[in-house]
Design brief:
Elements: H1 14-31, H2 35-49, H3 56-70, H4 79-90, H5 96-105
Helix pairs in contact: 1-2, 2-3, 2-5, 3-4
Length: about 110
């Protein structure tokens, strides 16, 4: 059992969750984004919107992976690699383009 030391949990701003969840649909419709780019958009939006009281990066990366699995795409990565992705987005070092590139290198 993992202990992350979280003392806060739950939704902080539901409108920011809804906004991030809408991003993949809009990217598909207006930018002709494929599933991988939609997943990158979802992850970016969830991390940057920071809608939960705790666990934002973990939840965002989990939902991104689940979104890909629902669409028949599996991720192959080491935990440290996903940690780098999440921290890079949070630090504004990575945008959707960098997440998209990372996903393309780690999907089957």
């Amino acid at each position: 059992m993992w202990s992350w030391g979280e003392t806060y949990f739950g939704i902080d701003k539901i409108d920011l969750i809804e906004s991030a969840l809408a991003r993949p649909r809009f990217a598909a419709q207006y930018e002709e984004a494929d599933i991988i780019e939609q997943a990158a958009t979802l992850c970016y939006g969830l991390i940057k919107n920071h809608p939960w009281r705790g666990g934002n990066k973990r939840t965002a990366t989990h939902l991104m992976e689940h979104f890909l699995l629902l669409n028949g795409i599996a991720l192959n990565y080491e935990i440290e690699e996903m940690l780098i992705l999440a921290l890079s987005v949070e630090a504004d070092d990575w945008k959707v383009k960098e997440i998209d590139q990372w996903l393309r290198e780690h999907t089957t």
